[in-house]
């Protein structure tokens, strides 16, 4: 019977494993073997992994693949991708190859501004609060100098600081809204340290100011935290060519394909049910490179989906048009990424991924990630508007089914040969395996 455990975090790694396996598994010995099977043989690397998070018992592996032939702003990249979903890497590689012969991808970083806020409550006179803020603004910024000096040497730091009145939305609620430039660092720890110092200085200055000594005028800081919504940290990725140049072995009528493609994008622009799946496809590409390069894919996801809703309705991140015989497909998304700090200098495979990409700056990585997302979206829409999504996906997914049924090398050869000319579904593959084994 499962029970509560006291002091789990204080147990050794072996003790944690023993408790988990004895508490939850019929065969604890087998469970321990599975857990230890995924430990790294190099004790230094294993210790490194153990210290990334808390209460670690093992490593959870995801495949790392390469999508080659990405021509971005005239330069070729082989893009590392970490993802568990079949057909994603193949689709990205296919798109990269398709566009490499049609001028490649163009990418531009439009802005790199990041945001943080000190959220506080104030019941007193609003005009006096604004006057007070204006009088201490420079002191607030100066108080962070010990934190920002190294960032300033690299051309970064706090770029603006303003007081925002949010009382129309929440009673007594105000915020210090700060913007930052963090150069090649994602900057989360830097931003949060700056914000906590700003909050501390704000409280100290208010405490020493005559207008803020009564109970009505006390400033109460609720929290100080960066925002993962970065609508001014934007990168644009784009492809374009003559409609006639879209011709391919699966695109016999390029004009018809282009028109259908544009229509598919417009549906995603106006229909949220379609837009969510449409954008999920984009994030297949985005997240896989974000993961491979040691960045925070949860932060990127949250910010991107907020951006997709910025006009009050969830909509497509990508757009397409045909003008004067030219097909153009593009996307602008917010990406707060880093190439120094965090896992980038710790995780051996992250360091390798960045090496494969040519040790990019944060801005160059933004471009690569956005392009991979756009390539993924192009591949999905191309399939949807021609052969359908399942044909390519199931060809890749068949390996998962074969592994599930522990097929032999000979069985695999027969099964794959059979499905070269027959439609693939989970049930049809299972049925064929059962028939073959009879």
What descriptors fit this protein?
438 residues; alpha+beta; four-stranded antiparallel sheet; globular
What is the secondary structure topology, with strand pairs?
Elements: H1 13-24, H2 28-37, H3 43-50, E1 64-72, E2 75-82, H4 88-100, E3 106-109, E4 114-121, H5 126-142, H6 145-153, E5 157-165, E6 173-181, H7 188-207, E7 220-227, E8 234-242, H8 254-270, H9 272-292, H10 297-308, E9 318-323, E10 326-334, H11 348-356, H12 362-384, H13 389-404, H14 409-418, H15 426-437
Antiparallel strand pairs: 1-2, 3-8, 4-6, 4-7, 5-6, 8-10, 9-10
What would you note in describing this structure?
The chain has helices at 13-24, 28-37, 43-50, 88-100, 126-142, 145-153, 188-207, 254-270, 272-292, 297-308, 348-356, 362-384, 389-404, 409-418, 426-437; strands at residues 64-72, 75-82, 106-109, 114-121, 157-165, 173-181, 220-227, 234-242, 318-323, 326-334. A hairpin with a 2-residue loop joins strand 1 and strand 2. It starts with 12 loop residues before the first helix and ends with a helix. The mean pLDDT is 93. Helices cover 48% and strands 18% of the residues. The strands form three sheets. A four-stranded antiparallel beta sheet has the order 3-8-10-9. Strands 5-6-4-7 form a four-stranded antiparallel beta sheet. The protein is α+β, with helices and mostly antiparallel strands. The protein contains 15 helices and ten strands.
